[in-house]
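Worked example 2:
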Amino acid sequence: MAGLVGDHVAIHWSEGQVASRIERSFPGSHAVVTISSSFYLPRLALSGSVQDVHAHVTNVTDGSLHIDTVDVTARDVKIDRTALVQGRTRVNSLSTATITASLPLAEVARATGYGAVADLGGLATGLKANVQAETGEVRVGIGPLTFTFPYNSLVPCVGSGEVAGEELILSCTTHTVPAALQ
């Protein structure tokens, strides 16, 4: 029983450490981190890894761009066991991470200089965005809009984009640990 309680406490402590790191990186944001790993402490001791880490971050502001939510789901995450013993959580590597960011179309319109979403026309659900890597930033084109935002410590990759209702959903997959999770 004591082992289960210790395991539970250790998972929550690690989740809190990662959430705090993200919130420090993006002041005003709120992060909820969930670690899915059965037998957390024994698994860490033996392999130094956990099965999945999921971070749900709301109210992210990056420069002048406001992102409603960013979800990061990382699989087969390798944790630095030495740092853990020293009271820190540090992610060394991961197998894969899927990152999904949701931006309100009103924010996209504002960022591109349009007055209101209604002025845009033609941004129907399912419309695909053209997402390209530029030097140090991501360029997104959707309908008449084109905007850029810098790669950041939470969204370090380029993927695809699509309109879903009143949101622009951007997603990508990486094999590199997002800096905000380190």
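The mean pLDDT is 82. The radius of gyration is 18 Å.
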